[in-house]
Amino acid sequence: MNSAPGTATAIQQHQPVMPVQVLNGLCVKREGKYVDATYGRGGHSSLLLEHLNDEGRLLVIDRDPQAVSAARQRHGADPRVLIAEACFADLSETLDSHAWSKVDGVLMDLGVSSPQLDQAERGFSFMHDGPLDMRMSPDKGQSAADWVNSAELSDIATVLREYGEERQARRIAQAIIRHRESKPLQTTHELAELVAKVLGPSGRKLGKHPATRTFQAVRIHINDELGQLRIGLRAAMRVLRVGGRLAVISFHSLEDRIVKQTFKAASSKPAVNRRLPVPDMPEPEFFNHKRQLPGADEIVSNSRSRSAVLRVIERVREPLAGVLS
Predict the structure, then answer these.
(1) Cβ atoms < 10 Å from Cβ of 53
(2) 245 - beta bridge partners?
(3) Which of 43, 76, 125, 198 has the lowest tally of Cβ within 10 angstroms?
(4) What is the pTM of this model?
(5) Taking a C-beta distance cutoff of 8 angstroms, is the pair 89, 99 a contact?
(6) Rg of the Cα trace of the chain?
(7) Superfamily of domain 137-222
(8) Which superfamily does CATH assign the domain made up of 19-124+224-259+303-317 to?
(9) What residues does each domain of the chain span?
(10) pLDDT tens for residues 241-282?
(11) CA 15/CA 44 separation, integer angstroms
């Protein structure tokens, strides 16, 4: 019997990506304080809790109210767990509201979760026909349908090109404009079929649906995922105590590039002019650990891990007085 996403059975079947690497990357302390900033359906949170003692604490955050409901169902009775509906970009404010100042680790598992993809009514996937929505928070902001049916051609083309790396962005944008002149786009299948028609057989490469890049781009735009990521990374790094670590799992190059550049900048000494006397520069506040990829066995058992990249950064000293991290 197949259970609907969000039920206890579906939760139990969810496989967290790179579980061993995440635990090792965070270097979990049994009495530590940790944040799972992207709870999803709790796979990583459950692993963390297995390694915390009675003194340990875990704050779980998600912007999706269904994920928050799942967290309360699964962990609500655990005194070690605090639960909050929030974006990880609001991490500092969320910690303040729970009287937390510094933590030993933060985890971010980026992108859309498997339960979100599996629920047709959320509108994330072209594999299931449903309303063209794509919002992480279903009651907040503009839906994908509202946007594609009102945005300017140039704006649609820019989003598809920059967030989906779609080479035929303008042709797809033009097709969207023509289609909505007679009938607004309302469902995931309508958008997927339109994109497939524009791209033709050449659009199906390496087993990917031709609408894959378009759906990724629209979803990223609707949820401001890259803007949220930039803010969230800085917020998470600020709340780490010395020895604390931030672990981030990304699934496409746009996310990973932001994480890589942010971590590199935070762990590098500033450039100096070699012709001038070298000032006494402090050591960087952070150490950037080597990236990790899933093993072959995990990719076979959990196809979602195929494109995953794990990056970890560790705070190695306190910021200088009067200097922002």
Answers:
(1) 10
(2) 105, 314
(3) 76
(4) 0.87
(5) no
(6) 21
(7) Putative methyltransferase TM0872, insert domain (1.10.150.170)
(8) Vaccinia Virus protein VP39 (3.40.50.150)
(9) 19-124+224-259+303-317, 137-222
(10) 999 999 999 999 999 999 999 999 999 976 655 666 656 677
(11) 9
